[in-house]
Amino acid sequence: MSLRPWRDIARRKSRQIMVGSVPVGGDAPITVQTMTNTPTSDAKATIDQIRRCEEAGADIIRVSCPDVESTTAFRQIARAARVPLVADIHFHYKRALEAADAGAACLRINPGNIGSSERVAEVVRAAKANGCAIRIGVNAGSLEKDLLEKYGEPCPEALVESALDHIRLLEEHDFREYKVAVKASDAFLAVAAYQQLAEAVDCPLHLGITEAGGLIGGTVKSAIGIGSLLWFGVGDTIRVSLSAEPEEEVRVGYEILKTLGLRTRGVRVVSCPSCARQGFDVIRTVQALEDALQHIKTPMSLSILGCVVNGPGEARETDIGITGGGNGKHMVYLSGITDHTIADADMIAHVVGLVEAKAAEIEAGSAVSMDTLHGKAA
After folding, report:
1. Rounded to two decimals, what is the model's pTM?
2. Neighbours of 237 (CB within 10 A)
3. How far apart are CA 378 and CA 373, in angstroms?
4. For the segment 223-265, what is each residue's pLDDT rounded down to a tens digit?
């Protein structure tokens, strides 16, 4: 029984598949994906970007393969990557065959533009031969013409029918290592389609609000769409689609999961919006600390509050807390207990040192995160 039952989320039961070495579905952790935006034919640039995404915590990374030069470079890229790679295929089914041979852990195909059922069958054969999973990627912007004629416009029923048609095709070829996405840029449409699909199938679902927008707008839209589905237990792997660097997609994805208590990675920051009562510049302090603590992977919590109204209460719930005080002296809480004060000038470096020390203790097993004690770690 959870210590905080109102935080519990009952995940939809799905069967599990493997994307390379990473399990997706079943009781596996919900994975975070992103996609490179460098020319895949430039292996060095793509590998460099993959490395940054790996450091940010990406579990799976997708790489577009639009031409032969890309699938040729893909072999070198796949060998260098530390996480499984998904080859993104549109229009040219032969790129899927080449990517499977080059080391892709998964092939992402869009049924609306991959071609005939015979071409899909060839992709299935290549996936089987190379141990690849397949992601069926249905998208409201590229639905098949017959479905658009039938329904008049992209709608949940059209997206789900497309997905079921192509699931049927894979299963007719005795292939079940697949996951499915039914994405749309309209959050209402995407959420409704995923809800319907979740009732109809037992395969893992890949969540996303496609073409969500820029860093702020896209984050909000994705958090609402992806977050609402995850809250009700739907979803096994996620990709936040932003007009931003792929590392930012990974960070936003983890923040969504952290907020829901589904996964934790790195420092969970609790901070106030600040007001005239603040004893220090909260906004700039939080920005500096978030930048300085990106290297911390150990799940733990940090509260940064400008005054004593809510500061002590929040600090009692976090591993390390700072509450603003008078005369440039601020109270430091360790494991929820007042410990010492720190001056403005020393605060950033001091907090970074405290977080690094606490993370080392947690990793060594000599300390436990307050998040774990409160039933939030995953």
Report:
1. 0.92
2. 25
3. 12
4. 999 999 999 999 999 999 999 999 999 999 999 999 998 998 9
